[in-house]
Amino acid sequence: MKVIRTDAAPAAIGPYSQAIAEGALLFTSGQLPMDPVTGELRNSDIVTAARQVLSNLRAVLVAGGADMTTVLKTTVFLSDMGNVEACNSVYAEFFKAPFPARSCIQVAALPRGALVEIEAVAARKCS
């Protein structure tokens, strides 16, 4: 097991790792819409929030030897299921067919009042 950490994504805000690599798989923690430089939440609307979340996710994936094309499964947590269509439009900017498997659920609340959080399981690139 290898801990993955990058300054290109927000540091963990609790007792967890940004990602864990085990063999050919990479498991990311949920990414929030936090700016990795300032630590500020980019949460003014779902499009802004989703873009930041997916940018953070991409940074963690790359640090772990994966990328958006090797993602096998995502879980999308929304504070309001009414945001799913707008979130999907941003999601489609970052992922191309064949799309990863996905679950999308509405939750009562997310850390720091975030509108969206996304976690992923990816295959690591072999060299």
Number of domains: 1
Q: What is the CATH class name?
A: Alpha Beta
Q: What is the CATH fold-level name?
A: 60s Ribosomal Protein L30, Chain: A
Number of helices: 2
* DSSP summary, beta strand count: 6
Beta percentage is: 25-35%
Overview of this protein structure:
- The protein has a six-stranded mixed sheet with strand order 1-2-3-6-4-5, covered by helices on one side.
- It is 23% helix and 26% strand.
- The protein is globular, with a radius of gyration of 14 Å.
- A hairpin with a 2-residue loop joins strand 2 and strand 3.
- It is α+β, with helices and mostly antiparallel strands.
- The chain has a single domain, classed as 60s Ribosomal Protein L30, Chain: A.
- It has helices at 46-63, 84-94; strands at residues 2-4, 19-22, 25-28, 71-78, 101-106, 116-123.
In short:
With 127 residues, this protein is an alpha+beta fold. The chain has helices spanning 46-63, 84-94; strands spanning 2-4, 19-22, 25-28, 71-78, 101-106, 116-123.
Question: How would you summarize the topology of this molecule?
Answer:
Elements lengths: L1 E3 L14 E4 L2 E4 L17 H18 L7 E8 L5 H11 L6 E6 L9 E8 L4
Parallel strand pairs: 4-5
Antiparallel strand pairs: 1-2, 2-3, 3-6, 4-6
